[in-house]
Amino acid sequence: MKIKKSTGYWLISVGSVSTTAVLGWLFTSKSIINWYPTIFKPIFTPPNWLFGPAWTILYGMMIFALNIVLNSSPTKQRQKVINLFYLQLFFNALWSLVFFRFHLIGTGLIIMAILWILIYLNMTNTNKFSITAGWLLIPYLLWVSLALVLNYSIWILN
Q1: What distance, in Å, lies between the first and last C-alpha atoms of the chain?
Q2: How far apart are CA 109 and CA 123, in angstroms?
Q3: Residues 28-45: pLDDT tens digits?
Q4: By residue range, what is the domain housing residue 82?
Q5: Quick one: CA torsion of 74, 75, 78, 83, rounded to 10 degrees?
Q6: What pTM, to 2 d.p., does this model score?
Q7: Residue 85: which of 54, 103, 62, 106 has the closest Cα?
Q8: Is the CB of residue 100 less than 8 Å from the CB of residue 23?
Q9: What does the angle CA 124 – CA 55 – CA 6 come to, to the nearest 5 degrees?
Q10: Measured between alpha carbons, how far is 142 from 154 in angstroms, rounded to an integer?
Q11: What average pLDDT does range 118-123 have in this prediction?
């Protein structure tokens, strides 16, 4: 049975982003209960119940953005965007591992800063390629901006 190209790209988009989401959840789930409540956090820390829905929406938007790019004609710009996309997914999962699993707040801050830069580069390069896909990444950049400030504040407080 042959899978249509667009269906294959959809499966790749869903699979790639969902894998990152699942890894993040696996690295985070125990610490969110045992460790995270015990550390000092700034007053602007969002409530815990907000993180799940926020990340679900953001991952959904990332799936659509990646799918748009994958379904476009192959070019060097497209490949650059795909590479940046997968690199930022890697740093997304890495941050969850380092911050929540290993409780390395300072190292997490460095990884979060790299992640922010990668998302920004991904978004700006995607905008040159597909404005719709690029705009789908703006909420992700905004959320990670908040997470970066939050990570920094937690590092200072602890």
Answers
A1: 56
A2: 21
A3: 999 999 999 999 999 999
A4: 5-157
A5: 100
A6: 0.94
A7: 62
A8: no
A9: 65
A10: 18
A11: 97
CATH number, domain with residue 127: 1.20.1260.100
> One-letter amino acid identity for 49?
W
Q: What is the mean pLDDT of residues 60-74?
A: 95
Can you read off the two tokens belonging to residue 150?
């939050």
Angle, CA of 134, 57 and 47, to the nearest 5°:
125
Q: What torsion, rounded to 10 degrees, do the Cα atoms 54, 58, 63, 68 define?
A: 150
| Helix locations, 3-137, DSSP H | 5-34, 48-70, 76-96, 105-129, 131-136
Number of domains in the chain: 1
Alpha carbons 155 and 107: distance in angstroms, whole number: 10
CA-closest candidate to residue 111, choices 94, 127, 123, 125 = 94
Phi/psi-derived region of residue 103, left when phi > 0, alpha when psi is between -120 and 50, beta in every other case: left
> 100: which DSSP letter?
I
